[in-house]
Amino acid sequence: MTKAEERRVAVVIVAAGRGERAGVADGPKQYRLVGGKPVISRSIGAFLRHPAIGQIVAVIHPDDHALFAEAVKTLASKVTVVDGGATRQDSVRLGLQALRETAPAKVLIHDAARPFVDISLIDRTIEAIGERQAALPAVAVSDTLKRGGSDGIVSETVSRSGLFAAQTPQGFPFWPIHAAHLKAHHAGKMDFTDDAAIAEWTGIPVKLVEGSPDNIKLTWARDIEMAHQRLSAEQASTLRFPDVRTGNGYDVHCFEEGDYVWLCGVKISHTKKLSGHSDADVGLHALTDALLATRGAGDIGTHFPPSDPQWKGARSRIFVEHAVSLVRAAGGRIANADITLICEAPRIGPHREAMTAAISEMLSIDPGRVSVKATTNERLGFIGREEGIAAIATATVIYPGEVSA
Ligand code: CTP
Ligand code: MG
């Protein structure tokens, strides 16, 4: 099909019913809101978004013009509106008549009461329409079928083999279905419940295409309620912005005389030691700052002032655990922590696993969520001259609640 030919697919959306079975107290079902939008604007919207659809005719009840204008607002300008008739069959015929002038090659006929029609179902249906072939989306019946007698007793079990539940949009070559509808009208045959039945009646073969279980017709009040709940749940999950926060930290300590260093919670023999008020574990200090940053809770000096003698020689895991307790008090879950140690020596590789284990224990998270890396400073600067060690850390914490848009 060329682009111009593709565009020659029109849609008739029938919406002139009263929705008696869904209850009329809140107005006709096709104008009720599901997930914040009128049913009919969802049904029309699905076709408006489809690139092959060139024209849309909405067949509505003569009393519903104001409701329709309100429901479809901006969409309305692209849609031709026609008054419907007393039965669905009448409404379809009137919709088809409105297309005679433009005479599209193919026409889809769709119930406004099916708002869950999706693009691929529309594609499949259009694809299966032939010059003298109709297309019917349908789903195989899966329940066991019984015939009930008027006495309320089952008279037989009906084989479901080869049985399908018909859906819309149903697709047709335009002129043949137009003629079939006119023929039925003139013959006074007004009991067809769908358009494929009219095609069958006039000998147009109807090809089955795969329907969609989601493409339900809203018939009863409970269908509308369920549609609403489903869309609200979908919206709730798609419109959430989880409160994910990332913090970073940086620290440096210089060397002094000694024979070990504490790095990332592990004591390592070395030719020097790091100087500091506490055990000078530069990796854990950077990590503490990263965690505090996710709360906007200042830095390590705010919580553990170097001037306070009680932190003299303290193990730095106390600082990390304090930051973790603040995170947890706010309901936070630590997603990961990443620390880079920057030094020429000692070599970190042999201790990496022990460091990862120590940190995962301090944070109470899986070791797979902890990363400890090391790099030299290419002999540059104070680190290159082995005057000290630096560390940078990043932590990501997920807090309860959402980030407002
Ligand atoms: N329809 C129509 N013209 C009619 C009757 C029905 O255009 N005279 C449309 C409905 O608006 C609906 C579709 O045909 O989109 C399928 O019909 P149905 O689900 O039966 O809707 P209603 O007829 O409105 O509902 P009820 O039968 O419960 O009154
Ligand atoms: Mg009806």
Query: Mind describing the biggest β-sheet?
Result: 5 strands, mixed
CATH topology of the largest domain: Spore Coat Polysaccharide Biosynthesis Protein SpsA, Chain A
CATH class of the largest domain, please?
Answer: Alpha Beta
Number of strands: 19
CATH architecture of the largest domain: Alpha-Beta Complex
Question: Helix fraction?
Answer: 25-40%
CATH H level of the largest domain: which superfamily?
Spore Coat Polysaccharide Biosynthesis Protein SpsA, Chain A
The tally of structural domains comes to 2
Radius of gyration (CA) equals 35 Å
Number of helices: 13
What small ligands are held by the chains?
Answer: cytidine-5'-triphosphate, magnesium ion
Can you describe what's shown?
This protein is α/β, with parallel strands linked by helices. It folds into 2 domains: 9-142 and 161-240, Spore Coat Polysaccharide Biosynthesis Protein SpsA, Chain A (Alpha-Beta Complex); 242-402, 60s Ribosomal Protein L30, Chain: A, CATH 3.30.1330.50. The chain is built from 13 helices and 19 strands. It has helices at residues 3-6, 39-48, 65-72, 88-97, 119-128, 174-186, 195-201, 221-238, 282-293, 300-303, 317-329, 352-363, 381-384, and strands at 9-15, 33-34, 37-38, 53-60, 79-83, 106-111, 134-140, 145-148, 154-158, 164-166, 170-173, 206-210, 242-257, 260-263, 266-269, 272-274, 333-342, 370-375, 388-402. The protein has a 5-stranded mixed beta sheet with strand order 5-4-1-6-11, with helices on both faces. A 5-stranded mixed beta sheet has the order 16-13-19-17-18. A 3-stranded mixed beta sheet has the order 10-7-12. Helix 12 links the parallel strand 17 and strand 18. Helix 4 crosses helix 6 (174-186) and helix 6 (174-186) packs across helix 7 (195-201). It starts with a helix and ends with a strand. The mean pLDDT is 94.
